[in-house]
C-alpha cells in the first residue's frame, strides 16, 4: 500500500469512525553486511462497531537479492546476506483487534477481499 492509498485509508477511517489515534515509529537496524535498514511503523487505533481496532503499516527497503553462504565444515554455520534497494520500499499492512480479555492485540486475517471497513 503506497503512501497515497495509506493516506486515503486514514482519511476514510477518520470520516467513518471519528477520532483516531495515529503514531509513527522509526527504527534503524544494521544488517549482517553492515547496511542500515530503516523501518517505519505507522499505526492507527480507532473504535468501530467490531470493537477497538488497529491498522499497522510497516515500511522497509525492498529486498533485491538473497545470497546464502554455506559452510561445509561442522564447526561453523551458514550465513544469509540480503541486498536491499536504495530507493524502492516494501509495505506490509496488518489489522489487529483488541482482545476482550487483557490488553493484547490479536491479528485479523484480511485475505484477498481487503480490509473489512
Show the helix and strand layout.
Blueprint: H1 3-17, E1 20-30, E2 36-48, E3 51-69, E4 79-98, E5 105-108
Antiparallel strand pairs: 1-2, 2-3, 3-4, 4-5
Q: Which key phrases capture this entry?
A:
single chain, 117 residues, mainly beta, five-stranded antiparallel sheet, 1 helix, 5 strands
Describe this structure in words.
- This protein is mainly beta and 117 residues long.
- The protein has one domain.
- It contains one helix and five strands; from the N terminus they run αβββββ.
- Strands 1-2-3-4-5 form a five-stranded antiparallel β-sheet, with helices on one face.
- A hairpin with a 6-residue loop joins β4 (79-98) and β5 (105-108).
- The two termini are 16 Å apart.
- The relative contact order is 0.19.
- The mean pLDDT is 86.
Helix content: 10-25%
Number of strands: 5
What form results from the Cα inertia axes?
elongated
Helix and strand string, N-terminal first? HEEEEE
- Sheet having the most strands: 5 strands, antiparallel
Whole-angstrom Rg: 19 Å
Give the amount of beta strand, in percent.
Answer: over 45%
Summarize the structure.
This protein has 1 helix and 5 strands; from the N terminus they run αβββββ.
Amino acid at each position: 500500500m503506497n503512501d497515497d492509498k495509506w493516506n486515503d485509508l486514514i482519511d476514510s477511517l477518520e470520516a467513518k469512525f471519528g477520532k483516531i489515534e495515529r503514531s509513527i515509529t522509526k527504527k534503524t537496524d544494521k544488517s549482517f553486511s553492515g547496511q542500515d535498514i530503516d523501518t517505519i511503523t505507522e499505526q492507527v487505533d480507532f473504535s468501530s462497531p467490531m470493537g477497538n481496532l488497529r491498522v499497522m503499516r510497516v515500511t522497509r527497503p525492498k529486498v533485491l537479492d538473497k545470497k546464502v553462504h554455506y559452510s561445509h565444515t561442522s564447526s561453523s554455520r551458514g550465513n544469509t546476506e540480503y541486498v536491499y534497494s536504495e530507493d524502492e520500499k516494501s509495505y506490509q499492512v496488518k489489522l489487529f483487534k483488541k482482545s476482550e480479555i487483557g490488553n493484547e492485540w490479536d491479528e485479523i486475517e484480511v485475505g484477498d477481499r481487503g480490509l473489512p471497513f
